[in-house]
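We modelled the chain as a single entity of 706 amino acids. Its sequence is:
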Amino acid sequence: GAGADNDLYINQAIVFIEDAIQYRSINHRVDSKSLWIYRWYYSRTCQWILSLTITVILALAFIEEPSSLTVTSDVRYRLPAWNPPCGLTESIELLCFLVFVLDVSVKSYLIGWKEFWKNKWLMAYILILIVSLADWIVSLSFFCRESVRIRRILRPFFLLQNSSMMKKTLKSINSTLPEMASVVLLLAVHLSLFTMFAMLLFARTKDNQQDKEWVVYFRNLPDSLTSLLVLLTTANNPDVMIPAYSKNRAYSIFFILFTVLGNLFLMNLLTAIIYNQFRGYLLKSVQSSLFRRRLGIRAAFEVLSSLKETPVSAQQSCVSVGALLQVLQKVEMDSRCKQAIMRSLKMCSCDQLSAAQFQKLFEELDKDAIKQHPPSPEYQSHFMQKMQFAFGHPYFGYLGNVVALANIISICVVLVMDADKQLSERDDFFLGAINCFFILYYLLEMLLKILAMGLKRYLSYPSNRFDGLLTVILLILEIATFAVYGFPHPGWRPEFMGLLSLWDMVRLVNMLIVFRFLRIIPNMKFMALVVTTLLDLVKNLRAFAGILLVVFYAFAITGIMLFKGAVVPLGNTRYIGKKPNAFVFSLWVNNFLKKKKMISWCSAHFQAEVIYCLLYVLSVHLICRWAKIYFVAWWLISSVIWVNLFVALLLENFIHKWDRRCQRESLSDIEYQRTVELMFRDVLEEPTEEELMEKLHQHPHLQLCR
């Protein structure tokens, strides 16, 4: 009947609004049963279970054989790692696969059969699950002793497919690759030409003493190419030119030209192209998100306008305020936005809302999140009012910064004076006394600020929370020091008692005091701008961190499988004389051994980020010359492409904040919080009425009545 239809329209509107809030597609089933499953699937509990499952299956690599459960990677000091018995990790993996099977089944059902064949991610999801389950069966057949596990490399896909923002980011990166490829090709031409010049310039001669450059760096084409590629990263600069420079100073011109053209021009040109192109593609992605939000809101309007109690108008569709209020009570959304929309509805004088008015109400979702600080307490006493004015004044905060600076300087003086003293010769009386004085001042400052501002207002400022937390920790450490060692006195020397020695406790207190000096950042506008930019990147660009994690994980697993048993520990005489001990030791410490570990490989890849590890690995002949392809691919993806992408987004975020700083005055009681979508809000184009309605009429499961 009419009541059942009205309930369906209400539920559809609720789901469409929630889709708009989360920038989700509305192309899913909209019958009553499917809507219930849809809301259940996107509930916090289900999404938390799915996220936990992805975390667990990715973390299995750290405990699977070869296990990474050791404190150190150095085999000289490492205890035998615990390796789980066969079937333990496989059972956990099977449970994860069952969750993923349920996940892909629900997604496929909700979007429908026709939409399923258009969704490449879902088809890839099913293919990955089939391959993973087949590999899991093979693993059990070999009693977990197989050397290659294909499913381990495929695990990062589960993280990718679960994040819509990561998919958009990956699509943007993929669209930027043609432009990046042109510069990378130019870089390859530059490298090839200079490689040929180097082989001609440093050719072998009759004098073996003068052939050091040829012997070490330019003996053949692969070695020459490798040497110049590493020089492009500046990792072997100036070592690569020293033999030739010792022979003739003029040879330095060759290396200077190569470095200037490669590093200063081509690499920076690559950064500029990535910034220009990727910003455009990211803008398109954000524009698409805006369209999804507007489409979801318009879809909610259309289904609500189909309610039976809505008066039929030949002119235009409309939605009753009561129906919208009923929907808002059930929608899961930010309380700030919900309250703002309800306030606007109560202030509205009309009973019916047009499409434009309905859309305008939900523009509250696009606005900056504003955090208003609680008011300060009102004291009746004249003396307390003066106290509140004095200790709530910015100058009192400046005084605290000066005291913190004095504390840092005093610590530096003591450290310089005690730098050359033996542990038994140190007298920590002065350091303990000044620490005690300054910590008491910090405690007094915190209490006076709470008195002036009130506890709620004090805690509403992140800088105060940071300041107060460190003050409490410092106070606890100081009390613990006094309880164990007594009050500072002449001849107060370190003495091991309990878990920490006195010097360790004092050093920990001093580190926290140095860390506390960061409180000056909010008082320095330009420094605060830089810090807030970095914090926004951490909060808003999680998709980039996720893709970077995927790259690290895939390369780490691939490296474990490719180079297992490639390098032997020190003491094995089989390869003595073939490579310098420093090389073997470098690989040994990082655990490039018979049993590679996940943590060690991630650590080695972090070193490769700065190309220190790459300098050695590219020259390895113990493994295979083809191993260079693996490390060059890693360098191109991580250092060349990914670092430049991060620089491009950092510049975009910083420029945006700089422009807004010029437009908006800083208000002491208001904090504005931005998201990635809001970064581009000023340049986004609103979709037209025709575009929205055309897209709604193409909905595979929604039949509009009007």
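As a brief sanity check on the tokenised model: The CA atoms of residues 205 and 299 lie 79 Å apart. The chain has five domains: 43-162, 172-285, 299-374+682-698, 382-523, 536-671.
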